[in-house]
Design goal:
Elements (H helix, E strand, L loop, with lengths): L3 H14 L5 H36 L4 E7 L2 E7 L43 H14 L3 H13 L5 E5 L2 E5 L9
Antiparallel strand pairs: 1-2, 3-4
Helix pairs in contact: 1-2, 3-4
């Protein structure tokens, strides 16, 4: 979503409101309009985020997020998992069953949810997307599990690297010379 037309419209309205004033006031209005652009963009982003949160609260499982990509907001809809069987053409072999989900640590859940904006570098976001897809879960679910594992005492966190799985935690194994 390109915010430029909206910002330009507000800037023009401010400059036009000063057209009947003196030359100094018109110049001040132009400088003020230029200086206000970042604040206007941020305000639009906050408004879009608040609208997305309100709409998400009224939807049945779908989540609407506002993400910043290349300096512009991007509206993303994460659909709730549908339990309907997709139609498959006759004669198509069935897909193998998905691997079972790894056991989840116990959650001390008070029933409340909090919304957090998380900014990740593009390369890391793509790795998170791939890991979530590999496990067959949403990015949100994958991130919640990662945070739970990281905060569970003595469990550490498993990270898949090109060299294999690595566990980060408090215990160490191996040989020392």
């Amino acid at each position: 979503m390109d915010l430029t037309p909206y910002v330009t419209s507000l800037n023009s309205a401010l400059v036009n409101s000063a057209q009947t004033s003196s030359h100094e006031v018109r110049e001040a209005a132009e400088r003020l309009a230029q200086g206000m652009e970042p604040a206007i963009r941020l305000t639009f982003m906050e408004m879009a985020s608040d609208v997305a949160a309100e709409v998400t609260a009224r939807l049945d499982g779908d989540v609407i997020d506002v993400r910043l990509r290349g300096g512009n907001p991007e509206i993303v809809v994460d659909r709730a998992v549908s339990h309907e069987e997709p139609t498959v053409p006759f004669g198509t072999p069935p897909e193998p069953p998905a691997p079972p989900a790894p056991p989840q640590p116990p959650i001390d859940d008070d029933g409340g949810l909090s919304r957090v904006s998380l900014r990740l570098p593009d390369y890391l976001k793509s790795q998170v997307d791939e890991a979530a897809a590999k496990e067959g879960v949403s990015v949100n679910t994958w991130l919640v599990r990662a945070v739970q594992q990281a905060l569970t005492p003595q469990s550490g966190i498993d990270i898949t690297t090109p060299g294999g799985r690595v566990r980060i935690g408090r215990s160490m194994t191996g040989w020392v010379r």
